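Form 7-S
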Amino acid sequence: MSLPDLFVKSMREMLPSGADAVLEALAAQPVVSLRLNPAKAAGLPEPPSRYEAVPWASDAFYLQGRAAFTFDPLFHAGCYYVQEASSMFLEQVVRQYVAEPVTALDLCAAPGGKSTLLRATLPEGSLLVSNELIATRAQVLVENMVKWGHPGCVVTNNAPSAFAALPAFFDVVVADVPCSGEGMFRKDPVAVDEWSEANVETCWRRGREIISACWDALKPGGLLVYSTCTFNIKEDEANVRWICEKLGAEVLPVRVKPEWGITGNLAGGSFPVYRFLPGRTRGEGFFLAVLRKQGAPGEDVGRREQKRQKERPTAKAQLVPQVCREWLHDVPTPLSALTPFVWQVDGSLVRAWPQALAGQIEQLSRQLRVLHPGVVVAELKGRDAVPAQSLAFSQALRREAFPEVAITYAEALAYLRKESLQLSPDAPRGYVLLTFRGVPLGFAKNIGNRANNLYPADWRIRTTHLPDNEVRVL
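Output:
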């Protein structure tokens, strides 16, 4: 890989005695890592002993190379997420600074790595809003959050400026702002080709615009997690300093261990920041700073809306078929803080979200373009309620509501390719929940001589290649 001369020059200026090691590391193979979904992987065997743990993250492991994740049904079922190890450092921020349920915003969330991490790490009872400006990327975000399966999530498709309509709404805002991508050079050759000094200038300015646009939505006393996947000081330390001076934020420290190899402030400032440099840390390039918005906390707008709602049903609740209500847990064990549910018929879709979060979700729906709140439980087709894929993946699914049919690896790949299925003759008729290795994979309607495949067409495996052997990542 040939790095831009001006980039190499800037790295040598920023790291007079350490640039060579970083530049050499950028020529090596990228590090591959994954993070387990604790709600889904609990019943699976422990990861292979050859996987080394990521030291700053829970349930996270380095792989020895890139696996054929496309052909692992458990990947599609949301049992794990393939995430860059350095960015998992966000977990340390949450665990050290968030002890009670919060309303959190992942502002630039696609494809979903940080959002799935937040959802696994935030205290139960929290609401997570995952936003993406670009519509096509927002659809990928919806898919990944649906597969992760937590009902306390909302996916939105808005510009950062739209959140100004929600003053003092969020306790936590995570802003992984668009950047020049220097930290992704060994993973993404396109990032190398697109790098220029002009693009760095554009990116540091854009970062400030994004933070300014959403600043009012953060509560006084709330946390802003500012991050990039780039190395340069203009997009990193300089923007953190600007947030402090212009917006009046305070930079907060995060406890780290020396053996993690994290690099601190390279701009001569006294405030703490956390930079991951290939060659020093085991991961790709990443930068993070934690800031607190000054001022006394005011009234929680979302909770105020919740009080108004109490436990009265929505206006359309009476339209929800009773059978759909039987498909969700009244009090799912790990989610007892998020039940019962509010129900809604939205066109042909039956949706549900936790009653405890109803006030916040309804306010979000009034102000933003909401793509996916809570759980899509079913699609209404005439008198029939067809169980939705979102329900199959949801932690709130009441599995005993459906007969289960365990399928083989070959059958699982056929299902994920949206191919027709023929289940065993003794399989129950009607809607059945297909499972692979004990994990729900989706629904089919068994009519005897064949089973109608209900997997979403947009999510299907499109490649015509099939592996010779079963791909087992876990």
